Amino acid sequence: MTELGINIFTASANPGRIESNLQRHAPAMGQILSKPMLYPTKMGALTPLYVATSPEALKHNGKYFAPWARRKEPRIDHENNIEVENKLIGWLEEQISSFESNNGIS
Question: Which Gene3D superfamilies match (predicted)?
Answer without folding.
Answer: NAD(P)-binding Rossmann-like Domain
